[in-house]
Design brief:
By secondary structure, this protein is mainly α. It has six helices and no strands. It is elongated, with a radius of gyration of 19 Å. It starts with a helix and ends in a 6-residue tail after the last helix.
Length: 113
């Protein structure tokens, strides 16, 4: 959930907000209330570290890739029915579509594609 939220809310580094008429704030301008990054804001709200938020995003993307390529519901992958670690899921997501199906079929024999 953290990963999905972070992926939706974050902006790319250096992304300009506003339009061409919006003035940029000077880099050396002192701000007594510096803005938190998206990861910092989410981490603070969830009471976890920013690295946890960023790792959660990578995991969420991996689950989405596998779900899209294999047709398995992402909730099924997250439910624990498929015995794989977070690292395993991320590794599987980098495999080809057919290899992903093959690996998931080995991890849960009842699934057919």
């Amino acid at each position: 959930m953290l990963g999905k939220r972070y992926g939706k809310e974050k902006k790319t580094i250096g992304e300009h907000t506003g339009n061409q008429h919006t003035k940029k704030v000077e880099e050396d301008h002192f701000d007594p209330f510096p803005k938190l990054t998206t990861a910092e804001k989410i981490a603070e709200q969830a009471k976890v570290g920013t690295a946890t938020v960023k790792r959660a995003e990578k995991f969420a993307k991996a689950v989405d890739i596998i779900a899209e390529n294999t047709g398995i519901a992402s909730q099924h992958l997250l439910s624990g029915n498929i015995k794989a670690t977070k690292k395993d899921i991320q590794t599987i997501s980098m495999a080809s579509h057919e290899k992903q199906k093959e690996i998931i079929a080995k991890l849960e024999p009842g699934i057919t594609f």
